[in-house]
Write a structure and sequence with these properties.
By secondary structure, this protein is an all-beta fold. It is built from one helix and 15 strands, in the order H-E-E-E-E-E-E-E-E-E-E-E-E-E-E-E. The protein is about 0% helix and about 40% strand. Strands 6-7-8-9 form a four-stranded antiparallel sheet, with no helix packed on it. The chain is globular and about 45 Å long.
Length: about 190
């Protein structure tokens, strides 16, 4: 699959497509997900994600290892509050309806920055689950049918009293990266 060969790039940016910016009915420019296809050395064809909507933000795409599930964050109506994590499943070339990951993952606050590890573990950031301060990184393990039924704080040294988020880890589970605004960095996050 092209998704697995590194020829497809999923990304977030302000709602801007084919030279036009779109704003919500109250004038807010929201976030949207896009997909770019590589052709040789160039990133060419850019497509909008099926569920982009100028009235809500849809952001932080994370593709499962098999390329069949796309996780993302949104403030769309019907969530638990703030921003929630959702997944769409590939249904033979088209993405199915967004599915909210439910109250084991989502809180009345903000969940964001999903990442699916090679073993299926969902890593994400939250300022609603009990943490060590600010936004923390959490892990959720898939249960029966791939459903995530609980989330655990990954603890120190990843999490601390500042904001910690954007966690990714290599397929071996031995080397990872994350974003933080803790002391000792080159600046804010």
């Amino acid at each position: 699959s092209a998704n697995l060969a590194g020829d497809v790039l999923w990304f977030t940016r302000n709602s801007y497509f084919k030279g036009r910016s779109s704003k919500s009915s109250n004038g807010v420019t929201r976030l949207s997900i896009y997909k770019a296809q590589r052709s040789g050395e160039e990133w060419g064809t850019i497509e909008q994600f099926l569920y982009n909507n100028s009235e809500v933000s849809i952001a932080h795409p994370a593709l499962s290892v098999d390329g069949r599930r796309l996780f993302f964050v949104s403030d769309m109506p019907g969530g638990f509050g703030g921003t929630d994590l959702y997944v769409c499943r590939d249904q033979g070339g088209q993405w199915g309806e967004p599915e909210n990951l439910g109250p084991a993952i989502n809180t009345p606050y903000n969940e964001s920055f999903p990442f699916i590890a090679a073993d299926g573990t969902l890593y994400f950031a939250s300022n609603g689950h009990p943490g060590l301060g600010g936004t923390d990184v959490f892990a959720a393990f898939p249960g029966a049918g791939g459903v995530y039924t609980s989330a655990i704080n990954v603890g120190s040294p990843v999490n601390g009293p500042k904001d910690d988020f954007g966690f990714i880890i290599d397929p071996a589970g031995s080397r990872g990266f994350f974003t933080s605004d803790r002391e000792g960095g080159a600046g804010d996050d």
